[in-house]
Design the sequence.
């Protein structure tokens, strides 16, 4: 113990080399070793343990964060340890500036790279896992745009910390951006409309939609336009800007279709028979699968008929299936009326001549 005390207090520790004592160099070296060991412990022991714990959770957010941290190169930790170690030393100003620049650039680079990975994960998670190529292409495009924005912000941050006035640079970027935006106004408008469609999801691939005067099944959602397959079979190409500004009806999300129709019987129909008509209609509609009867009422005295109004709900989003149901209802009502000898009305007009 006495030997160790004499060794630590030996005069040679106070000998200076390049403005620092040998003791200061020893302290810096010891800090470098300790910091490197702590970072190694974090990267190989703690992260490995956290990765095992993350596998037992249902969420994949923790797995993604751990993978992002694990992707940081060991050289970054060594650089940080070296930077912390030399803080105890007196070093030339030029060396200090070089070290500060290297550390700053590397830290910003790691931050931008990690931010880009988080952005890509968020986009994939928000948009959802899709197999169609257009969705994957849009995700890649948004991810790349976000990456460039992050790199530009990081670059300006580095310049500002180096004492460079970035105001003129930002002004130049602003003027250039305005010029590019004016030149590509139509393209950029459709591009951002495409982002709005993917993020808001008013419709998806395979949905049957009506947008203004156009209707059809969504075949592809592109960067500039969306393609619909019309009922007649032709392809309709609509710009994404037009779709985001138009009123869009999405029939794929339809769960129950409300159907209203009317019919009339002749004026010679007895009141007792008219009382039975709503019951007959309810019986016909109630016997059809996936159809819910709502009401049937005598509505008005028409010009040439006694008019009834019927409302029911077809519990399907498929248009062809709905038409099959509606046809069964109409034919069922006709057969029931024929059986009860109820005469359907048709437009007539009696003219008296003098």
Sequence:
């Amino acid at each position: 113990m006495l030997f160790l005390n004499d060794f630590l207090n030996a005069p040679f520790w106070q000998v200076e080399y390049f403005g620092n004592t040998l003791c200061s160099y020893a302290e810096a070296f010891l800090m470098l070793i300790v910091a490197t060991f702590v970072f190694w412990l974090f990267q190989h022991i703690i992260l490995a343990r956290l990765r095992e714990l993350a596998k037992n959770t249902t969420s994949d957010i923790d797995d993604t964060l751990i993978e992002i941290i694990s992707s940081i190169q060991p050289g970054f930790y060594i650089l940080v340890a070296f930077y912390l170690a030399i803080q105890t030393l007196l070093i030339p100003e030029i060396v200090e500036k070089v070290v500060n620049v290297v550390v700053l650039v590397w830290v910003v680079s790691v931050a931008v790279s990690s931010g880009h990975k988080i952005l890509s994960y968020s986009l994939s998670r928000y948009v959802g896992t899709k197999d169609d190529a257009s969705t994957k292409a849009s995700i890649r495009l948004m991810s790349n745009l976000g990456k460039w924005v992050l790199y530009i912000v990081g670059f300006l941050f580095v310049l500002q910390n180096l004492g460079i006035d970035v105001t003129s640079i930002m002004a130049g970027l602003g003027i250039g951006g305005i010029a590019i935006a004016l030149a590509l106004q139509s393209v950029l408008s459709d591009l951002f409309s495409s982002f709005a469609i993917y993020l808001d999801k008013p419709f998806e691939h395979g949905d049957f939609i009506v947008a203004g005067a156009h209707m059809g099944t969504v075949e592809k959602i592109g960067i500039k336009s969306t393609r619909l397959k019309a009922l007649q079979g032709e392809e309709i190409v609509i710009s994404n800007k037009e779709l985001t500004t138009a009123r869009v009806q999405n029939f794929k999300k339809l769960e129950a279709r409300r159907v209203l129709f009317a019919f009339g019987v002749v004026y010679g129909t007895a009141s007792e028979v008219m009382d039975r008509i709503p019951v007959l209609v309810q019986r016909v509609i109630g016997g059809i699968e996936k159809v819910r009867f709502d009401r049937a009422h005598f509505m008005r005295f028409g010009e040439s008929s006694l008019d009834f109004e019927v409302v029911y709900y077809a519990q399907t989003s498929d248009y062809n299936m709905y038409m099959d149901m509606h046809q069964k209802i109409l034919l069922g009502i006709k057969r029931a009326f024929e059986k009860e000898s109820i005469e359907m009305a048709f437009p007539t007009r009696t003219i008296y001549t003098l």
